User: Which sequence fits this backbone?
């Protein structure tokens, strides 16, 4: 027997190298194992161990009479939580849960029998935390490892795990099976023509494919129950007990059962055990007990976003619903919903076509209704002629909102509708309640209506109408709120419609939708009529305002022209008489008298100039001013203007500065009016500049093919918020009773109008206390290669 150091060295030598298993084996007390220390192993076992440890494939050696387990790093992944305790332990301990099936195979090989090979063999292995089991598949081989003497030292087990591959293949097989079943279902549903046939196929196929104990398909009823609540109806079922089938043949949509809950919420339920059933639907434990239900699959049936029903399958044992099974049920639900919709459309095709044609005819008829009265008359007539109503009444809310006033009616006997011409909005009758709440009312019989309005029961029973509906006319674009509840305060009704029948009516969902569509057509027609009437009123008001403005403008112009003319006559006479007196027609004139006469003549000329300015403004404002547009030499115009204004500048001791200018500049303008504008600008600059100041005149060509003429001064300046005001007629900045500057305030207004009349503009820049600059911009003319205009 070797000593401890020798055996440890032997283990260290055999298991030298990298890897988790090698490291573990180097520290393992092999002497405590059935196999003993590696020094005692046969050469074949030692050689096989080294080769195994170097292999990337999962390999183990069942060694010695106890099939002691020696394995490599790849095999430890098969062991999972059994590693590292499995190293050096008997196979009967390591794989106790599968040893009963595995031992005969290992023993056969050890006894010299043929090797063993299995492909995708299934084992239930307890290799998870807590001893939990899982299914695993392996393609493995068992072969003998022989010593030189031919004895079997160990059984070599190469065992790659194929669990993932098998699961994928199984899933694909199940998917193919489900696809085949869905194809079969699709073919079967294609042959159905009624909802009942669809339900029969879906329930049968679902029960068969899922192995369910029961199957059921329920639809939302097209009309409400006796208590006014929405209901569901079992269309087809199999496997239900008579008691359950009878109790749930019809049930409210708000019932605490799976199919109703699925319809209400749009939720699919996959409950895998009895506890989950009781937790989700605690109100119906007797149902689960009577059916022996332990698992449930319920799927809503939706068409166009609307949940029309649900299908449900139960199972008498707990059942898992993996994702592929859930998808199968959901696909089955989609197929069923589509088939139900096809069947429903087939049954409703004729009614839908007739109603569509009726809507088109009503729309066409309303297209010609221009006024509110037209809409009421046309719509009520179409209701009685197109859809078979016996009576129809249309009314609109008055502008003050206090009443509903009739627009038109049809089908009533002479004078019978007179009592309904105007109804107070708080009358407390069905029509006004509908208008206030914006919610329709559907009454299959007059007795039902009388029961709802008992205080008016005698009047209701005296009417010929039996079935009747009251419809709100909503503001264009708004929708009727959902049935029930207190309503949406933001939805407004602009009127109401009453449609009556002499016989009881069944207002199912399709019929209600049809009537609401008719009401919407009426709402749109009323909106158009109101817009038309408002447009006509606005046109009349605009025309009246335009005529009044034109009349006022004519009166103003006539007044100014007349007054100016009447004032010029005596002013001319004053000037003439003053001139005669000055030359001595009435006798000798003293120097003092001559000075007074000169003052009279200056005042006369000034006043005459003011009046002429008013006349010019009147002519410009009336568009009666003519422009003679030519190529105007700007240098000549500015020189003339400077010469004319120079005496005034000298009289105030002002410097009149002429900026250097291009003498070839031409503008496209009216020469006389250019000169008038420039003279006005120079005159204003001289007038508002204190003695010793400076007035500058200049011009330049601009890159935008215009020419700018400016007049700047060192006067008092203008505040920024007053710059635009100076161009308004009759505006003077010094408006006090003691102002020192005279004038009408028309000069700049006329100048800007003249500038714009010649295709230019007049603008101003100013700084209070520094001075102002007025700039006249006019279209330039290209001259001798200088691009000053275009």
Assistant:
């Amino acid at each position: 027997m070797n000593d401890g150091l020798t055996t440890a060295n032997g283990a260290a030598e055999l298991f030298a190298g990298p890897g988790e298993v090698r490291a573990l084996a180097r520290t393992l007390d092999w002497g405590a194992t059935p196999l003993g220390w590696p020094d005692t192993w046969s050469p074949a076992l030692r050689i096989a161990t080294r080769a195994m440890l170097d292999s990337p494939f999962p390999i183990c050696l069942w060694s010695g009479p106890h099939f002691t387990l020696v394995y490599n790093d790849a095999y430890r992944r098969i062991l999972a939580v059994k590693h590292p305790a499995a190293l050096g332990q008997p196979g009967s301990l390591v794989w106790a849960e599968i040893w009963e099936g595995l031992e005969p195979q290992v023993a056969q090989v050890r006894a010299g029998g043929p090797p063993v090979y299995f492909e995708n063999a299934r084992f239930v292995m307890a290799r998870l935390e807590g001893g939990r089991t899982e299914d695993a598949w392996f393609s493995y081989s068992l072969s003998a490892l022989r010593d030189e003497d031919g004895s079997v030292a160990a059984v070599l087990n190469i065992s790659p795990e194929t669990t993932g591959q098998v699961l994928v293949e199984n899933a694909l097989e199940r998917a193919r099976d489900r696809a085949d079943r869905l194809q079969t279902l699709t073919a079967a549903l294609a042959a159905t023509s009624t909802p009942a046939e669809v339900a029969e196929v879906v329930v049968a196929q679902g029960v068969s494919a899922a192995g369910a104990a029961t199957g059921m398909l329920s639809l939302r009823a097209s009309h409400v129950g006796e208590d006014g609540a929405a209901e569901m109806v079992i269309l087809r079922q199999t496997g239900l007990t008579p008691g359950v089938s009878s109790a749930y043949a019809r049930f409210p949509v708000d019932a605490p059962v799976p199919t109703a809950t699925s319809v209400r919420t749009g939720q699919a339920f996959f409950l895998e055990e009895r506890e989950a059933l009781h937790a989700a639907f605690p109100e119906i434990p007797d149902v689960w007990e009577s059916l022996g239900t332990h698992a449930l699959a319920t799927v809503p049936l939706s068409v166009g976003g609307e949940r029309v029903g649900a299908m449900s399958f139960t199972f008498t044992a707990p059942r898992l619903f993996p994702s592929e099974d859930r998808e199968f049920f959901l696909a089955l639900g989609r197929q069923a919903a589509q088939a139900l919709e096809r069947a429903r459309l087939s049954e409703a095709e004729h009614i839908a076509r007739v109603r569509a044609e009726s809507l088109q005819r009503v729309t066409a008829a309303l297209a010609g209704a221009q006024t509110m009265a037209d809409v009421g008359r046309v719509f009520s007539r179409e209701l009685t002629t197109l859809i078979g109503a016996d009576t129809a009444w249309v009314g609109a809310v008055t502008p003050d909102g206090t009443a509903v006033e009739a627009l038109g009616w049809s089908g009533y006997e002479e004078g019978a509708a007179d009592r309904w011409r105007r109804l107070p909005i708080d009358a407390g009758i069905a029509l006004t309640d509908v208008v206030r709440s914006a919610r329709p009312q559907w009454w299959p019989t007059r007795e039902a209506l009388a029961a709802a309005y008992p205080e008016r029961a005698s009047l209701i029973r005296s009417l010929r109408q039996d079935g009747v509906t009251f419809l709100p006319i909503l503001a264009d674009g708004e929708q009727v709120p959902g049935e029930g509840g207190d309503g949406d305060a933001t939805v407004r009704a602009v009127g109401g419609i009453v449609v009556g029948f002499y016989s009881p009516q069944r207002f199912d969902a399709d019929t209600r939708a049809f009537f609401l569509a008719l009401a919407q057509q009426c709402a749109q027609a009323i909106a158009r009529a109101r817009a038309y009437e408002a447009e006509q009123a606005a046109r009349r008001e605009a025309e009246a305002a335009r005529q009044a403005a034109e009349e006022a403008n004519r009166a103003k112009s006539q007044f100014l022209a007349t007054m100016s003319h009447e004032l010029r006559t005596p002013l001319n006479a004053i000037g003439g008489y003053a001139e005669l007196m000055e030359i001595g027609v009435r006798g000798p004139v003293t120097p003092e008298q001559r000075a007074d006469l000169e003052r009279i003549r200056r005042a006369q000329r000034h006043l005459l100039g003011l009046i002429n300015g008013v006349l010019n403004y009147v002519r410009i404002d009336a568009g009666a001013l003519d422009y003679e547009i030519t190529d105007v030499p700007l240098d000549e115009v500015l020189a003339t203007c400077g010469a004319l204004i120079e005496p005034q500048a000298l009289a105030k001791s002002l410097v009149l500065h002429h900026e250097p200018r291009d003498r070839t500049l031409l503008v496209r303008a009216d020469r006389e009016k250019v000169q008038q504008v420039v003279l006005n600008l120079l005159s204003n600059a001289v007038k508002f500049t204190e003695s010793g100041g400076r007035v500058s005149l200049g011009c330049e060509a601009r890159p935008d093919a215009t020419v700018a003429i400016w007049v700047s001064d060192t006067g008092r300046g203008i505040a920024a918020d007053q710059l635009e005001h100076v161009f308004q007629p009759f505006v003077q900045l010094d408006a006090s009773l003691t102002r020192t500057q005279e004038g009408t305030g028309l000069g700049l207004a006329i100048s800007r109008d003249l500038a714009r009349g010649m295709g230019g503009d007049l603008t101003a820049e100013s700084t209070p206390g520094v001075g102002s600059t007025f700039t006249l911009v006019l279209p330039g003319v290209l001259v001798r290669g200088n691009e000053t205009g275009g």
About this structure: The radius of gyration is 54 Å. The CA atoms of residues 116 and 564 lie 132 Å apart. Confidence is low (pLDDT under 50) at residues 735-740, 784-790.
